[in-house]
Amino acid sequence: MLNRMKSNLIMVVSLWFSAGLAAQQSPLTDPESHFGFKPGSDRNLFTYEELINYLQELDEGSPRISMQEIGHSPMGKPIYIAFISDEENIRNLEDLKEINRSLALDPGLGEEEIESMVHRGKVFLLATLSMHSSEVGPSQSAPLIAYDLVTTSDQKELEWLNNVVYMMVPCHNPDGMDMIVDYYKKTSGTRYEGASLPRVYHKYVGHDNNRDFVILTQEDNRAISRIYSQDWYPQVMVEKHQMGSTGTRYFVPPNHDPIAENVPAGIFHWSGVFGQQMATDMTAEGLAGVSQHYLFDDYWPGSTETCIWKNVIGFLTEAASAGIATPLYIEPTELTVSGKGLSEYKKSINMLEPWEGGWWRLVDIVEYEVVSTMSILKTASLHREDILRFRNRMCREQVELGSTEAPFYYILPTDQHDPGELVNLVNLMKEHGIDVYELNGDVELEGMVYRTGDVVIPLAQPFRAFIKEVMEKQEYPERHYTPGGELIKPYDITSWSLPLHRNVKAGEIGNRCDEVKGRLQKIEGEYSLFEPFEREVYAIVLPVTSNESFRTAFLALEEGLQVERLDVEMKYQDRHYGKGSFIIYNDPGKKEAWEKVTGQLRFRPGVISDKRALIAHPLVIPRIALVETYFHDMDAGWTRYLFDTYHIPFTVIYPHQFRETDLTGKFDVIIFPDNDKSILMTGKRKSDDEYYLGSYHPDYVKGMEKEGFGKLMEFSDKGGIILAWGGSAGLFEGILKIRRKDGEEEFQLPFRDISSELTKEGLYVAGSLLKLDVTPDHPLTLGMPERIGVFSRGRPVFRTSLPVFDTDRRVIGTYPEKEVLMSGYIAGEKKIGNKAAMIWMRRGRGQFVLYGFNPQFRASTQASYKLLFNALLLDDPE
Ligand SMILES: [Zn+2]
Predict the structure, then answer these.
(1) Per-residue pLDDT tens for 110-152?
(2) Three-class DSSP labels, 744-791
(3) Angle at 30 between CA 28 and CA 33, to 5 degrees
(4) pTM of the model as a whole
(5) Cα 681 to middle of ligand 1, angstroms
(6) E-only strand ranges, 364-458
(7) DSSP classification of residue 51
(8) Which of 464, 719, 754, 847 fits a 20 to 30 Å CA distance from 111?
């Protein structure tokens, strides 16, 4: 990080060495001279470190730019904002930040105070570049934009810099940028130039990094979210992306329906103003193919644009892609449209000047990026005063709405089935910049008694729209293209309710109930229900109902402590611990480990002070293989993330490695996250009975093939446990074979996936939370309540059948007969009612657990985690 003082110091030092020269800054090197190529030129890319070095050089040499480090990527690279504005604004950043904060958060400002701040304030425009690392254009254009702005003497641009502080995050995903650039350089000049990266471009989640902004699991995303949730409160935000190669050249707002009804109209109006100006300016500069009201909707809060629920005028732009840095020739006949808003690739109101086809290069993308960025700066500058007033008006209106319109409060009792998830939810809301409170006395409300300590989230806050969006049950806004016509479908999922996804009880209070107001005590710092131990500790007991108990138990094993699981339920000191609850023994010889393990507890465990015998067995972590493919395997990545954060050790195995791996000797459990059966078997995607190769280097286009699958069946035959969800469950349907010395044995597991039939009959689940009735008293459902919500896209759905010979099956979870939907959207609900959603099967000693939902979906379905954890700990049936 370079602050002003430090760069002034460098200035002084450099002046020392250049004695005799006039006291002026050293000339700045333009990007082409610095990098040795013009950014955007064919087949040329710089790395993240090279990009940052250049911007730091500008920082050292120019008073118009200041780099600030804001956090780290998951693989440890520093992330920066480059503040670019005129010299005076850069000098006054801290004062301007205070103005931003007051306008964003203070609903009580008087008219004069507001006008004074509007007079002094600047529009802060946050731009996050290339979070999706194969979308290289925005980050590659960053040096050109920065250099132009810090050296310009153009009167118009200087005026923009006087009115606007441009906050450029030159790269939102540093890890991915280097992976993509390094891999491109490796393939450059070979037959396979531009081949897709054979992994996710991120430590864990790849493209899903832009699905993480409600749950904020990834470190880079938390750093970005903090900019608008806690630190800088910019008024405008743009995330810079690229899309496919054969569609429109550029997308600017407004977005298409559906829109989030919680977001105030003004936000959409303003993003439309920016979009309209971009379309106008870009077209005037001769850049064809700009589209609006197309493909991308504004319904779901998982992207960086989550800031629109926090009163930021937020939007995205999308440029058409080249072959990374390799030019592409696009035949006019290949041009096409998809999604919503355009039905033909023709001049129409949503694409007024279609691009005609031909060569498309990185340099084109860079040009579109530069022109669109200048247009956004211009719009922000033109409307500086209105935008600043608008920000405080949003704050006042949201606080007013929260105190006049239901719901007024969410109250979350501390008495929860899984108290750890309550704690996590509270800390997440605080990370989002939400004020959270505790009751300092009992209150009776709407027939319920809430106790001292229960958690209260008042809606009368500037970020009310966000609170309501993530705390309520989602009801999909059904809109149609024509009256009575086709439903407008969502771009992504339709459920994200934090309490429902975590199975945390939350009362939605519809009365103003002023007595609550007088009982609120703000939660400062990290929230925790843990209380220090008062007595000697022989062991602690952690209830099986809590995900955090599993995390702590796995950590304790990792740290070498003795951990057991109860074989029977136990009542101890007025608390009930179900079968499967964990005992962690204090070991005076391992003080450090003990402190580490107990130090991360966020709720109070049972404390056993005296030595006693418990009916329990040792917890042993099995040897786990996690199947990941080379094809941007995000679901496997999320599973790795989950396991890493829960201290569950595992080995990644690729499908083609099955052939040469001693599966039985090395592993006890093999996990298949959601994937295509054809990709797992052959390395190729299959659609309508045809295989597709894609753009991967042939070294990576390989699957298990028959031989590898045979090894998997031998693993099962010898007592291995196989878990699979989503499309991967299809691997185990139909007639399977096990090789024996005396030939092959055929068998069939007693189930079928009936989701295709249900879909034909009208079932449509748009990525929703469905109710699951959990089968009690089964090792897979230890610690589970009777009913939870599970995340489903409507397939697979199972039908079991009578077992033959040495096979067996149990239905572990069933969709209820009626009212299956918990949150989101479903059509043909009746079709899925009373169907099996999770099954356990056995053949000989081999066990199979198949899920019709993703138990760890984007690390946002905490209610179903235990269905996965328990499966890892299944006993051998013999
Ligand atoms: Zn993208």
Answers:
(1) 999 999 999 999 999 999 999 999 999 999 999 999 999 999 9
(2) EEEEECCEEECHHHHHHCCCEECCEEEEEEECCCCHHHCCCCCEEEEE
(3) 115
(4) 0.96
(5) 29
(6) 409-412, 437-439, 443-445, 448-450, 455-458
(7) H
(8) 464
